[in-house]
Write a structure and sequence with these properties.
The protein has 374 residues and is an alpha/beta fold. The chain is built from nine helices and 15 strands.
Length: 374
């Protein structure tokens, strides 16, 4: 009995020390490698994510717990957790295919990796990392826009334009109290001591205001995400089209100026395009109400207004039909809805066209170019 107790005493005294030493050796000899097949996935493509775990020690590595990052920022989807037991000099390899069907931010990689000893008393957290991928909407190059009034006015130069072009110098005028000093003629001031402002002619190009409807009526699913991406791609395509023509363009996403893009701020198309990754459909305000608020709050100097929406909005329809100047245009995104619902809408759309309403129907993300140019 005494020998047994002595044995147990030494066993429980020495074994924890051996366990700790073994644990340290295993932790130092456990390696992992992650690999991705692309740095810049496009919408609709996939990311091939490979990882390899290896135990380079001469002892069994009992428990390795691995938890992965969420895949997409607006999704609860994640890769399954794994628990590994690796024998001496053994490897474990696996490969995932991460699909990127929608615009957004995808995070792929390991969130936590923890090693335990055989009794799960001691643990060690490895330093891990994940990679973030930005998946942008497609840029669809348009040759024209299928709205006769807009194309005819652009070609004929019938829009006078109200945006002053600082390359079109006209004359000097005396400064009046309260006027902006942005265009002071400094040389004239230095020579005469009087304050004069440079005046410019207005550009002959039409100005365009683009409004994107960011309402979402229910929790996101595949149909909702497909529809929202289609709206963003319509917007991107139109912005690119007008930018290429050097037509003054404002983009309104909300009543918050920080969310909008103003031509007078000299923003570039690439600035706008990169920002689309952060366009979220979470507004409760219709495009019509945003238009009214902005119109009432500032001197809106643009001639034409294009609304991009997935809703049949009677207020927008009335605004478009009642306008005497053909300055309101309506692009209806019908992706993500059934053919039955599209047929019901078609009757209403035809009536709008009969009343000279400037409306274009986009059936899906795959037909954006065809529908906008029709």
């Amino acid at each position: 009995m005494g020998r047994l107790m002595l044995f147990l005493f030494y066993f429980f005294s020495v074994y924890p020390l051996i366990s700790v030493v073994q644990f340290i050796v295993l932790a130092m000899n456990f390696k992992y490698i992650e690999d991705f097949n692309t740095e810049h996935p496009l919408k609709g493509e996939s990311i091939r994510y490979k990882f390899n775990f290896s135990n380079e020690s001469l002892s069994i590595n009992p428990f390795i717990f691995v938890r992965f990052k969420y895949i997409q920022s607006n999704s609860i989807e994640r890769l399954n957790e794994i628990v590994l037991t690796l024998g001496k000099n053994k490897n474990f390899s696996y490969e995932f295919e991460i699909k990127c069907p929608y615009r957004g931010i995808y995070t792929v990689g390991i969130e936590q990796m923890k090693q335990y000893d055989i009794f799960k008393v001691i643990s060690y957290d490895y330093e891990v990392w994940a990679r973030t991928f930005y998946v942008y909407p497609r840029i669809i190059n348009l040759d024209k826009i299928g709205i006769d009034n807009l194309n005819n006015n652009r070609v004929a130069g019938l829009f006078s334009g109200r945006i002053f072009d600082n390359t079109l110098y006209h004359s000097l005028k005396g400064y009046q109290t309260g006027e902006s000093i942005k265009n002071i003629a400094w040389k004239k001031f230095a020579s005469s001591g009087n304050v004069y402002l440079k005046t410019y002619d207005a550009t002959s190009h039409p100005g365009i205001d683009l409004y994107l409807d960011l309402r979402r009526e229910r929790e996101a699913d595949d149909l909702i995400l497909e529809r929202e991406d289609c709206s963003v791609e319509i917007l991107v395509s139109l912005v690119k089209y007008f930018f290429d023509l050097n037509i003054p363009l404002n983009v309104y996403l909300s009543i918050d100026d920080n969310s909008n893009f103003y031509w007078e701020n000299n923003y570039r198309f690439t600035d706008f395009y990169k920002s689309t990754i952060n366009i979220y459909f979470e507004s409760e305000i219709s495009s019509y109400n945003i238009f009214k608020i902005i119109k009432d709050s500032k001197n809106n100097t643009f001639n034409s207004v294009i609304f991009i929406t997935h809703n049949i909005d009677p207020e927008l329809i009335d605004l478009m039909i009642s306008s005497d100047f053909n300055e309101f245009y309506y692009i209806l995104n019908q992706s993500g809805i059934s053919e039955h619902e599209k047929n019901k809408r078609k009757v209403y759309i035809d009536r709008i066209k009969e009343k000279k309403g400037n409306i274009i129907s986009v059936n899906s993300s795959g037909s954006i170019k065809e529908d906008l140019e029709l």
